[in-house]
Amino acid sequence: MRILAVELHRVAMPLVRAFETSFGRQTARDVLLVRVRTTDGDGWGECVAMADPVYSSEYVDGCEAVIRNYLAPALLAADEVTAESVAGLLHFVVGNRMAKAAVETAVLDSQTRAEGVSFGDYFGADRDAVDCGVSVGIASNLDDLLAEVDGYVGEGYRRIKLKIKPGWDIEPVRAVRDLIGALPLQVDANTAYTRADIEHLARLDEFGLLLIEQPFVEEDILTHIALSRAIETPVCLDESIVSAEVALDAIERGATSIVNIKAGRVGGYLEAVRVHDVCAELGVPVWCGGMLETGVGRAANVALAAMANFTLPGDTSGSSRYFAEDLTEPFELDDGRLTVPTGAGSGVEVRTDLLADWALRPPITLTA
Ligand code: SMG
Ligand code: MG
Prior knowledge:
This protein is an alpha/beta fold. The protein is about 35% helix and about 20% strand. The strands form three sheets. A seven-stranded parallel β-sheet has the order 5-6-7-8-9-10-11. Strands 3-2-1-13 form a four-stranded antiparallel β-sheet. A two-stranded antiparallel ribbon has the order 4-12. Helix 6 links the parallel strand 6 and strand 7. Helix 9 packs parallel to helix 11 (about 270-280). The longest helix has 19 residues, at about 95-115. Bound molecules: N-succinyl methionine (SMG) and magnesium ion.
């Protein structure tokens, strides 16, 4: 195909409840959506970068600038573009994986729609629904936390993930474990701890957690290795894993025995499939992370999470976990599971009326 235009849409999406992590509190998502207009038809991709560079170095204004100044011009200048060739065409730009992922996903959506192939079939999904977990933010007190968790359990979520930070770890985990009994439970620190906390974190062993996610800064593989040796609970990397090569390295060195896969973090769904495959070969289970996606990104995540080695429930919650109204038809939990879309491409339609109503500014159209 030839890329005729790249459109950048910015939408404000208020969250139904504030989401607090070790790095801050979020009350809305500032979403960047990419639409490619191609000789084969249109395709959409969602950029998962947050408004501020606090989860990773990428942030939404930065992604928009990189796409505008580098990524879109490179694709618009190419005679022939396929989803499989996007990474190579954009390789001259270092990093900026979330920006690249948004663009590549839009091309993949256009390509697979034209071919009549769903994302699930393209990725090699082997089931038609996926088990869903929910990520629960840091609350202002234990009562509020338990009420929130209780609500999610009532909705049927199959796994609870608690955000933790120093001063909000052992007690909330104990309280939630007491509340939910044997329901799978895991924690995510978003890099809030240091090597000095290893002994303290080992106290989490008594709660039978599925895993502890990313306790230390993303570059610090060594401290994750040290924790893995000191704790029974499996250590799982999120922020650190930016490619299949890094996943292989971290696994072989004993830093991670379970991997969180987020397509945005690794530069796109094609690389995410590679991370899945590397992990499968090494016998390391994976699960699908989330970045508070709208239905556009959620559809692709659910398709990815239907691959064979995604054996743990993902942060693939229903649309209502975050949004009163979604940008696509909503994803609704059925017995703790979401159905993998079967339509061509991502299988969902962007509600362009809402896109216009919620726009932060008029779309930017880039052409050759
Ligand atoms: O989409 O349900 C979701 C969010 C899941 O906790 C979640 N994501 O580190 O895994 C993570 C965080 C990153 C985003 S926090 C603003
Ligand atoms: Mg995480």
